[in-house]
Specification:
- Helix content is 54%, strand content 21%.
- The protein is of the alpha+beta class and 137 residues long.
- The protein has one domain.
- Helix 1 packs antiparallel against helix 2.
- The longest helix is centred in the C-terminal third of the chain and has 29 residues.
Length: 137
Protein backbone atom coordinates (compact mmCIF):
# COMPACT_ATOMS: atom_id res chain seq x y z
CA UNK A 1 0.00 0.00 0.00
CA UNK A 2 2.96 2.34 0.40
CA UNK A 3 3.82 2.46 -3.27
CA UNK A 4 0.56 1.61 -5.00
CA UNK A 5 -2.06 4.27 -5.69
CA UNK A 6 -5.48 3.83 -4.15
CA UNK A 7 -7.20 6.13 -6.66
CA UNK A 8 -6.26 7.41 -10.09
CA UNK A 9 -7.97 10.33 -11.77
CA UNK A 10 -8.05 11.24 -15.44
CA UNK A 11 -7.16 14.94 -15.92
CA UNK A 12 -6.99 16.22 -19.52
CA UNK A 13 -6.39 12.72 -20.85
CA UNK A 14 -3.54 11.98 -18.42
CA UNK A 15 -4.01 9.37 -15.70
CA UNK A 16 -2.73 10.82 -12.40
CA UNK A 17 -2.29 8.85 -9.18
CA UNK A 18 -4.34 10.85 -6.73
CA UNK A 19 -4.48 9.01 -3.40
CA UNK A 20 -1.71 7.07 -1.66
CA UNK A 21 -1.43 6.17 2.00
CA UNK A 22 1.41 8.68 2.20
CA UNK A 23 -0.64 11.58 0.83
CA UNK A 24 -3.26 12.80 -1.59
CA UNK A 25 -3.38 15.31 -4.41
CA UNK A 26 -5.09 18.38 -3.07
CA UNK A 27 -5.05 20.53 -6.20
CA UNK A 28 -3.88 20.62 -9.77
CA UNK A 29 -3.61 23.15 -12.52
CA UNK A 30 -5.05 22.05 -15.83
CA UNK A 31 -3.24 24.68 -17.90
CA UNK A 32 -0.36 23.86 -20.21
CA UNK A 33 1.37 21.82 -17.51
CA UNK A 34 -0.27 19.70 -14.86
CA UNK A 35 0.92 20.50 -11.38
CA UNK A 36 0.01 18.14 -8.59
CA UNK A 37 0.33 19.29 -5.00
CA UNK A 38 0.66 16.32 -2.68
CA UNK A 39 -0.58 16.90 0.84
CA UNK A 40 0.95 14.35 3.21
CA UNK A 41 -1.43 12.30 5.33
CA UNK A 42 0.75 11.08 8.16
CA UNK A 43 -2.14 9.50 10.04
CA UNK A 44 -2.87 7.09 7.16
CA UNK A 45 0.82 6.33 6.78
CA UNK A 46 1.27 5.61 10.49
CA UNK A 47 -1.88 3.46 10.55
CA UNK A 48 -0.63 1.52 7.53
CA UNK A 49 2.78 0.90 9.11
CA UNK A 50 1.12 -0.15 12.38
CA UNK A 51 -1.12 -2.65 10.58
CA UNK A 52 1.84 -4.12 8.75
CA UNK A 53 3.78 -4.50 12.01
CA UNK A 54 0.80 -6.07 13.81
CA UNK A 55 0.33 -8.65 11.08
CA UNK A 56 4.06 -9.37 11.01
CA UNK A 57 4.21 -9.78 14.80
CA UNK A 58 1.26 -12.16 14.65
CA UNK A 59 3.33 -14.57 12.56
CA UNK A 60 5.64 -15.22 15.51
CA UNK A 61 2.83 -16.07 17.95
CA UNK A 62 2.62 -19.63 16.62
CA UNK A 63 2.94 -21.17 20.08
CA UNK A 64 -0.11 -19.27 21.35
CA UNK A 65 -2.69 -20.38 18.82
CA UNK A 66 -5.77 -19.03 20.61
CA UNK A 67 -4.14 -15.63 21.00
CA UNK A 68 -3.00 -15.76 17.37
CA UNK A 69 -6.58 -16.35 16.16
CA UNK A 70 -7.94 -13.50 18.28
CA UNK A 71 -5.18 -11.23 17.07
CA UNK A 72 -6.01 -12.19 13.48
CA UNK A 73 -9.67 -11.28 13.98
CA UNK A 74 -8.63 -7.93 15.47
CA UNK A 75 -6.36 -7.40 12.46
CA UNK A 76 -9.28 -8.02 10.10
CA UNK A 77 -11.37 -5.45 11.94
CA UNK A 78 -8.52 -2.92 11.89
CA UNK A 79 -7.92 -3.45 8.16
CA UNK A 80 -11.63 -2.88 7.53
CA UNK A 81 -11.44 0.35 9.54
CA UNK A 82 -8.35 1.40 7.63
CA UNK A 83 -10.15 0.83 4.32
CA UNK A 84 -13.06 2.94 5.51
CA UNK A 85 -10.64 5.66 6.59
CA UNK A 86 -9.03 5.64 3.13
CA UNK A 87 -12.47 6.02 1.57
CA UNK A 88 -13.13 9.06 3.75
CA UNK A 89 -9.94 10.67 2.43
CA UNK A 90 -10.91 9.69 -1.12
CA UNK A 91 -14.16 11.64 -0.79
CA UNK A 92 -12.16 14.74 0.23
CA UNK A 93 -10.37 14.85 -3.13
CA UNK A 94 -10.93 17.88 -5.33
CA UNK A 95 -13.85 17.05 -7.56
CA UNK A 96 -14.74 14.08 -5.37
CA UNK A 97 -14.38 10.54 -6.58
CA UNK A 98 -16.31 11.29 -9.77
CA UNK A 99 -14.31 10.03 -12.73
CA UNK A 100 -11.72 8.34 -10.53
CA UNK A 101 -10.62 4.76 -11.08
CA UNK A 102 -9.43 2.46 -8.35
CA UNK A 103 -5.75 1.59 -8.29
CA UNK A 104 -4.20 -1.64 -7.09
CA UNK A 105 -3.86 -0.19 -3.58
CA UNK A 106 -7.64 -0.18 -3.20
CA UNK A 107 -7.74 -3.96 -3.52
CA UNK A 108 -4.80 -4.81 -1.24
CA UNK A 109 -6.79 -4.61 2.04
CA UNK A 110 -9.24 -7.16 0.64
CA UNK A 111 -6.34 -9.41 -0.29
CA UNK A 112 -4.87 -8.99 3.21
CA UNK A 113 -8.19 -9.97 4.80
CA UNK A 114 -8.37 -13.04 2.54
CA UNK A 115 -4.89 -14.15 3.61
CA UNK A 116 -5.69 -13.61 7.30
CA UNK A 117 -8.83 -15.73 6.95
CA UNK A 118 -6.74 -18.46 5.31
CA UNK A 119 -4.29 -18.19 8.21
CA UNK A 120 -7.14 -18.68 10.69
CA UNK A 121 -8.16 -21.84 8.81
CA UNK A 122 -4.56 -23.05 9.02
CA UNK A 123 -4.41 -22.33 12.76
CA UNK A 124 -7.62 -24.35 13.26
CA UNK A 125 -6.15 -27.21 11.24
CA UNK A 126 -3.01 -27.16 13.44
CA UNK A 127 -5.16 -27.26 16.58
CA UNK A 128 -7.05 -30.31 15.30
CA UNK A 129 -3.77 -32.03 14.42
CA UNK A 130 -2.35 -31.39 17.89
CA UNK A 131 -5.52 -32.64 19.60
CA UNK A 132 -5.50 -35.82 17.55
CA UNK A 133 -1.80 -36.36 18.33
CA UNK A 134 -2.52 -35.96 22.05
CA UNK A 135 -5.29 -38.53 21.83
CA UNK A 136 -2.88 -41.10 20.43
CA UNK A 137 -0.55 -40.81 23.43
Amino acid sequence: MFFFPILDKNVNGIQLPVLYTKGFASSWDTGEFITVKITPVYSLLIANITLVLLCFINIFNYRKRVFQKRFAVVSIILIGGFSFWCSVYAKKLPGGIEGASYGIGAYLPTLAILFIVLAIFGINKDERLIRSAERLR
